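User: Show me a protein chain along with its predicted structure.
Assistant: Here is one chain, sequence first, then structure tokens.
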Amino acid sequence: MKNARFIVEDKGADYILPVKQNQKNSLKQYARLKRVIFPPPHVTVDKGHGRIEKRKIQVVDVKEGQTNFPHAAQFIRVSRSTTNLYGNNLKKDVAFLVTSLTQEKADAEFLLKSIRGHWSIENCLHWVRDVTFDEDRSQIRTGSAPRVFATIRNLAISLLRLNGVKCIASAFVFSMTLTWSWQFRVGFFHKTTVWQLIQFNNNN
């Protein structure tokens, strides 16, 4: 909630934030949202990558006293169901969010596109950190060290992406067998150094 206030009051921007069950400050809000009556949904259906994905978004104005989120304007309910191309293996999930954007600034369609874009970026980043960097097995868990190494991982990913690397796992294999060309360097921060930092993180 401090982040929400900072975004609006200090940065002059708007936010779309999730209301999560695993956060103490958001738990009661999540329970309240489950009782909110939402209007009919805006629906999208996508077919690809061996699955059919159906998304529904419902948006309702925030009434006075309904939430502790500062500057909240709308509640959002996003439900998603996926199946394979034959309609089997059904999976469902529901997410609640809150935004400072009013209906005049953002309708349901706009909000769904914004949320999908954020989830796509977030899922890609987390997958690379979890799988390529093997983050879950890191033995660094005390003090500020976990945050420092998370920042280093994000920096490494950003450097590689900025230099046109599409498959980061393959890029790291390449960095272990060949010397990186000067075209793949950014300032003084050589990617081999990034790799060594990640290796140090996983081995200590």
